[in-house]
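I'd like us to work through together how a protein chain folds, taking it slowly. To get us started, please write out a protein record for me. Go ahead whenever you are ready, and we will take it from there:
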Amino acid sequence: MQQLSQSPNPYCDYDVVRDFVMFFGRGQEVLTLYDALAKHRSISLVGKQHVGKSSLLKYLGSPALQQRAGYHLPQHLFILTDWRDYLTKTREDFFHRVCEQIVLQCKSAITLQSPASTNGVERFRDLLETIKQNNFHPVLLMDAFDRVTSNPEFDASFFSFLRSLAGLNDLISYVTATKKPLAQVCHSAVADSPFFNIFLTLSLGPLTQTEAQALVSVPAETAGEPFNPQEIDWLLKMGGVHPFFLQVSCRYLFDEKRRGFLTGTALLEKVQRAIYQELLPHFENAWQDLVPDDQQQLTREVYQHVQTRHIHQELSKSLLFCRKVRELSQNDTIELSADDIKNALDHLDDTDFLEESKLSKLQYIVLYNSNGTITAANKRGGLVRELLKKAFEQMKPGDVRNDTALEWRLYNILWYHYFKYRLPNHHTATRLGISLRQFYREQDKALLALRREILAIEEAALQQGE
């Protein structure tokens, strides 16, 4: 019977870490942030959804995090704001609300009165000047900043004003959190604003392997129900080095172990199914956020079993995310007809044509070239040609070619007409001792046979990562 005295599952944070004891890692990023803020710089924090931007902003003002990083910033006032609140609001709404947040969040360090002015811009400036006169420096933490930069209410003059406060006036520093670099998330009217030139960009990517292992093992051990070494290794494979993927993975295994109904392989298989179903929409969103070139490179790495991922390791080191990548690849399988094959053969020497053909969209072409390096788009035509030749060679019924043997006829039609001599149709028919009418019938069969070999190669490429 389950005991009521059991410790709660420590892995239940979903959108943001609510208890500092569950804030793991980010050691190097924290050092970079504090070093910049100590110099009154502004920072643009960029990272994928659920990678930990909100949690990092939440604890930047924490004395415990500063102590962990070896910093002491008592004169810095950290004001956390969520810009999702301003998605449809005006500039005045912003200034009045931020002034209220500054007064509220800084009351433990300094007594402030909200300025009496009814003008939001004047209230904000007056408040910052009062803070400076008291030898404090405010840091405005702007979570989900990308949600408001598309709001036309926040125009060039708004951002110009913010820049003036952080520039020569040195009244404030900013830390923005966005999924993409600032230049990519702004509406056209403000994209060239000098405001966005004052930021040091800091990418928030994967945890280190040591940080990921601590996130997996320490909370369960603290709760008195530690994971064993095999379970820790399994969890690191499921979640990789993505903090959110790891949280979800640990939560399910922690709960299922306490139920005690399953053990061993049966336990892990059940938990894996549950984790995958919960993370599936997050995998799909993460995939859609990638640019096509990154999707192709990540897919290639998954299928080629690259041990050291070179791109988006917070995604690609998760076995479950890799599973989703393979599913997406198989769903994108190109439907090829005999006519598609014939068109490519008719232009076998035209690399540009082959590059634009249906065959160039095959996963085999996307994933591989002769030495396993990344395939540039302008090389795909050559790869299509090599694929056609490879499939053609797989049609060989034996070692020694024969003009008259029936089993060699389909191969010979393609040999004489496309791959070797480029003979006209009637010359090929004469060479093989068949009528022109029969040649056309046999040619259709040859094209279908070549198509089967191409699809077999494609299937092998897709299955390689399974």
About this structure: The longest helix spans residues 436-463. The beta strands are 42-46, 76-82, 137-143, 173-178, 199-203. The two ends are 40 Å apart (CA to CA). Confidence is low (pLDDT under 50) at residues 369-378.
